[in-house]
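Support request, please re-run this one:
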Amino acid sequence: MPPRVQPVTAAAPRAAAPRFAVLSPQQLKKLVAPLARKYPGALVVGLVSPEGQSVTGFGKDLQGHAANGDTVFETASLSKVFSALLLAQAVNRGELQLDEPAKDAVCWRVPAYGATEITICQLAQHMSGLPDWPDNRGNTTSPYSSRDLQCYLEHGQLQFPPGEGIIYSNTGFALLGEILAQKAHTSYERLLTENVCRPLGMNDTRVHLTASMRNRLAIGHKANGKQMASSAPTAGGGADGIRSTANDLLKFVSAYAGITQPDFEKAICDSYRVRENVDEANDIGLGWYTRRADGIVWKGGCIAGYRTYLGFIPGKHLGVVVLAGCNAFPSPDLGKDLLLEMEQALASPIASDN
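Re-run finished. Output below.
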């Protein structure tokens, strides 16, 4: 009799091993969990490298769902680096010049210091002399329209000659957002969506919450656990109005870290290139800060109930996102520490999973 032939069963394909961003979710949780337990509210931390990405959540959103990469947070002043990118894009298209007077680019009065005018670049570097907040702003949870900003600028005074000092200015970035929108004959949010969010696939990054985003919103808290009302954007939102998720912001920081290469890569590089000294530790580009000690490029944000951070290391292709639903959470410190931990792990010849 001929030998029996056993039927051959195709082997099931092996599941692809998860690709983590240098640190595994287990390592990330070990590093972050002790800190997360000290503060109320949701926390989401995202890491990205050429090897992949990790997103780890703690706490819950408004609906009681466990926080994750799709949980929505107010990003606060992370909005400023989006405005900086929109500015760099406009400059590269020849629509604006960094050294042109701001008053020539907007159909409003812009304060001057004697004969010294504010330039577009000075708005993006906190060197305009405009104050941190307009004196008619009030609480950040109260509505504040573009018309309100225009009314402030009608009587506003500069605190020093433009270019001769640095004072962190939400007012300056709110004005920059209005200039960008007016130049494009559209709203700030539409400009953001068409020029940044859509090309990068960021569908959960907006100034005004969609119904879906609202259902995934993290609740903002004070350190004592008290819940806080959501903030209202200052004018169009160019200073503080963007809401987003860790998954979306990882796409944004991936483009800055050189992991992805969008069509506007030159504008990205132009926006974070160092232009001025800020203090003993940091230099500034357009909106972005660079730490001299380690080359980390970063931006933090803090607003009613939220504390946020974006950071990356040029040339190392490493990025971090920290979104916290508590305005006392040390997001910038944690973000910096995680970037340095990732850099060290990348340099180590032996990777550890614990």
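The CA atoms of residues 33 and 58 lie 8 Å apart. Residues 1-16 have pLDDT under 50 and may be disordered.
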